[in-house]
Amino acid sequence: MITLRSFAPADVPELVKLLNDEAVTRFLSTKIPQPYTPDDATWWVEEGSLLAVNRAIEVNGKLAGCIGVNRGEFEYARSGELGYWLGADFWQQGIASAAARLIITQVFEDTDIERLFATVFSGNQASMALLRKVGFTEEAVLQRAIFKNGQFYNSHIFSLLKQA
Predict the structure, then answer these.
(1) Is 161 exposed, middle or buried (0-12, 13-18, 19+ CB in 10 A)?
(2) What residues does 84 pair with on adjacent strands?
(3) How far is CA 160 from CA 6, 82, 92, in A?
(4) Distances (CA, A) of 143 to 12, 117, 122, 140
(5) pLDDT in tens, 78-119
(6) In DSSP terms, which residues pair with 66 in a beta bridge?
(7) What Rg, from alpha-carbon coordinates, does the chain have?
(8) Alpha-carbon gap, residue 25 to 33, rounded angstroms
(9) Where is the N-acetyltransferase domain (predicted)?
């Protein structure tokens, strides 16, 4: 069973384990420190996860990953950026798409956000497929817009509008 919940102090060790897996962090923002320490995880649980609509993805009682929506500011306040990651043991099981559907429903029902968007590194075909599967449309490709670990990536921009 897949559920979305708030992060808890008991998640700290598993967050450290999951976010020190290069396969998991390969296409994630460098906002996530590397190596990822218990202090980083504690900050996330106690403060960082509370700054937006961020939820732990739990599968059968075990922390599997994270999904969240960060609201824009000022004239972009009715848009939110969707982001997510899963531990490698949970890939290719429909977990991320189920979690995405849950948070999309929650955000569109419980907030005034009208547009969700996501940015995806070129090469992350699984994430692009997931977004299409849950109803997002690719809007643009920004050439060489991402630079991580000495390499350029194109940034694929996807969006989903709230249905009236």
Answers:
(1) middle
(2) 67
(3) 24, 10, 22
(4) 36, 18, 9, 9
(5) 999 999 999 999 999 999 999 999 999 999 999 999 999 999
(6) 56, 85
(7) 15
(8) 10
(9) 2-159
Q: CA–CA separation, 43 vs 97, rounded Å?
A: 27
Q: At what angle do helices 125-133 and 95-110 cross, to 10 degrees?
A: 50
The angle formed by the CA atoms of residues 64, 148 and 17, to the nearest 5 degrees, is 25
Token pair for residue 80?
């939110």
Sign for the CA dihedral angle at 72, 108, 2, 93 comes to: negative
DSSP 163: P
pLDDT above 80 (res 143)? yes
| Contacting residues for 72 by C-beta, under 8 A, at least 6 apart | 78, 79, 80, 81
CB atoms within 10 A of CB 3: 15
